[in-house]
Design brief:
- By secondary structure, the chain is mainly α.
- The chain has helices at 24-31, 42-53, 58-66, 69-80, 94-101, 103-122, 131-154, 163-171, 175-183, 185-198, 202-210, 214-225, 229-237, 248-263, 278-283, 291-311, and strands spanning 6-13, 16-23.
- The chain has a two-stranded antiparallel ribbon.
- α3 (58-66) crosses α5.
- The longest helix is centred in the middle third of the chain and has 24 residues, at 131-154.
- The chain is globular, with a radius of gyration of 19 Å.
Amino acid sequence: MVATDFANVFLVHGNHKMQSTIDFNALAERFAYAGQLPQLSSAALRLTQALDDGDAQASELERIILSDPGLTVGVIRAASNSFYGMQSKSVTSVRRAILVLGEKAVRSLAVSLWAHAMMTDRFVHPALAGKKFARHCLFVGYLAGYLYSREQKVDGVIEALAPEEVFAAGVLHDVGIGLLGVISPESLDIVVAHAEALNLEPAGAFRLLTDHSVHELAVLALETWRLPEIFSSLILAQEDPTLQPKYPVAAACLCYAEHLAAGNKHGILSTYHGELNPAAQELVGLNPDDVQDVIAVVSGDTDAFESVNRAA
């Protein structure tokens, strides 16, 4: 295939020939336009802005969080979760949760809660199966955060990121695919048809069709939402951690988490069984005997998160 921004590809699938046309540049314009995108929740936006200003007081952050019941429950629960190192103590107030988690973690959790709600409510394209897609992204987020926390504790990896930031990047890792179903459903139809026919995950099919990464579109949306740049940089590097020289282990955890999710019935499509990127394997290698135990733990965390969101 000749690389162009306007992909016109024929694919033979069974006895049928499918013509596929995707205009990447037109999609990029729409992904960068705020009017085309779901709105960032008021609480998440105010929290991000307050923290980016650099002089937010704990009392101000507390007021913002308390204005959103779902965010309040999620932040308190996260601060009491063993994932964040609080195995023996229960956090019962937002003020205490902010102290336990830290500002970067609170911001990342706010973004994660909003993203999960958006995926559940707005990503209704049949190929995404709504809640199944949201669960996939949440599962990858928890698994990426778990792997990153493990690398910090076991192997002494020192990168200036909190596990919560890697968790949020994981929740957002396939937001480009999800938004494609909102902004251009016909384009997602084409991508899914090729993914299923060629045994690819949707991101791989999109690259084949356009010679671009769908994560480039995701970054345009994240920039429009004015989300922290770290999420964009990790999402862009998830297919090849060597593209992220500053945080290669975090990017590798994201890549590894997506691979394990797809291979353990937590992927977007059931047809994909691809190979793990060698750099991710080298940077974050789990013992094969431990994989199923880790999958079980992360599945439990995902179930608990979803139950909290429903209750809120």
